[in-house]
Amino acid sequence: MAKPYSDDLRTRVVAALGAGLNSRAVAAQFDIAPSTVVKWSQRKRRTGSVSPAKFGGHKKSILEPHERFILQQINETPHLTLHGLQALLAARGVKVSHDSVWRFLRAKGLSFKKNSVRKRATAR
User: Where are the alpha helices (DSSP H) in the chain?
Assistant: First the structure.
């Protein structure tokens, strides 16, 4: 993943723009895109700082508060599908995709693999 440019470079770019150079000249001088110069100057005017916003991080799952309910449903109904679990959550007012349910379960170390009771069809 790329890193944000340093505050030092950002400050020098905005200062050069404030000294009277146009965006394209400043961009050529610092070897960056003209749109970057414009965005940094807008950020300086808007926030008073050229520092980048928060970069990266982890977003908690919307299903975290419902973990106990999800695990209870899986224990009570072992043949429950992702779509079935999604429907149960929707009935509680939690609207998520089945993919979100799958990612949540995978993060918890759970899976929906075939169990040993179901035997594979064999050739006779």
Answer: 7-18, 23-30, 34-47, 67-76, 82-91, 98-107
Report pLDDT digits (tens) over 63-113: 999 999 999 998 888 788 889 999 999 999 999 998 999 999 998 888 766
Spell out the domain ranges in the chain. 7-47, 64-107
Distance CA 44, CA 49 (A): 5
Q: What is the pTM of this model?
A: 0.49
Calculate the alpha carbon distances from 28 to 5, 13, 20, 51 in Å.
16, 11, 15, 21
- Structure-token pair, residue 77: 């109904």
Nearest to 61 by CA among 4, 99, 20: 99
114 confidence band (pLDDT: 50, 70, 90): low
Backbone angles phi, psi at 66, to 5 degrees: -105, 15
Residues sharing a CB contact under 8 Å with residue 74, sequence separation 6 or more, in sequence order:
80, 85, 110
32-45 pLDDT, tens digit each: 999 999 999 999 99
